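USER: For my understanding, would you kindly supply a protein sequence with its structure tokens?

ASSISTANT:
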Amino acid sequence: MEKNDIRYQTYLQILKEELVPAMGCTEPIAISYCAAKARAILGCLPEESLVEVSGNIIKNVKSVIVPNTNGLKGIEAAAAAGMVAGDADKILEVIADVTEEDKTKIKEYLEHSIIRVKPLDTEEILDIVIHVYGEGHEVTVRIANYHTNIVLIKKDGEILYEIGGTAAKEETHQADRNLLCVADIVEFADTVDLDDVRDILSRQITCNTAIAQEGLTNSWGANVGKVLLKAYGNDVRVRARAMAAAGSDARMSGCEMAVIINSGSGNQGMTASLPVIEYAKELNSDEDRLYRALLVSNLITIHQKTGIGRLSAYCGAVSAGCGAGCGIAYLHGGDFRTIAHTLVNALAIVSGIVCDGAKPSCAGKIASAVDAGILGYEMYCQGQQFRGGDGILSKGVENTIQNISRLGAVGMKETDKEIIQIMTDC
């Protein structure tokens, strides 16, 4: 693939947009970012605020610890952290620099201020609207569609910024993910000038490996990564699952280390990368081969998620675990055909795992998804495969991906509503 090819430039831009650092689960961090932005526009610490969020935000914030808050959970805690100590310029690392003094202030602010939370009646799956009030002024900031996408800023009734509006001519432009396909992803990985992606991927390796090691070293969540190693041994198939699970163990329980995300999710970023990194060590793959394999894993994960959407009742770890299986296949020398069969086999096994929010059990789902990715590759190596017409599989990898997109984005809409209802009743 030549550098002047539209696909080449688009894939590079997609990687730059998707593989970015975030500290903490991205849904509460998006609330913190929105809140920090609102406070900055207001110009003072709000005396009162209203946080309106879509159902999937409620689902993904309910059970996860907000980092740098001394173990606080919930929408109110995420909003308070952003208002009291957030730096909106740092985007998804908005509360990375919170001090011990700030943590005390966050707790005191929660105890003495008014932060109301209200479900938002919206068609958007990811939607956050924060209204803040102070010193006689009112500010509204809205994030929609993806975690950093501010679409509205309003102060005292005056629109300061609006995507698609008349008050500001700003528009959100993202690279066209519809140009992604498995065959072209493999061609891109084979031919890319690695200097164009080296910084992005080296950062992913460094950050995600560090938090996985933290998850294996100390006690976080349900310690799924540790359990895997203790129960099943040190084989590379186990280590690949354990590293990804351990990263999630730490991250879901408030670890204050940044990860490089994929498709808006740190869990997906770790799942798409850590198993591939572990296999590269086992195979003594050189750095260049690892980078190319990570391109396969990351871009195939993004390709699957494009049709499903940022948030869904369909567990995103499935997309990333199956993507990791494709990266592992590439490390072993697999071509397009090998990778396509690996992906279809893996999707046949684990599609349908539901997302019931961010919490410690995500680590277990990650382990299952990575296991399916590895099994999908091993099946192909032994001449075995699941075929089009088996369940939701269709002949051709792109047709199967379309079916999965339909399942996650359309078929599981009612499932998502029921999951949210169950969670809010608990």
The first strand starts at residue 21 and ends at 23. The radius of gyration is 21 Å. The longest helix spans residues 287-308.
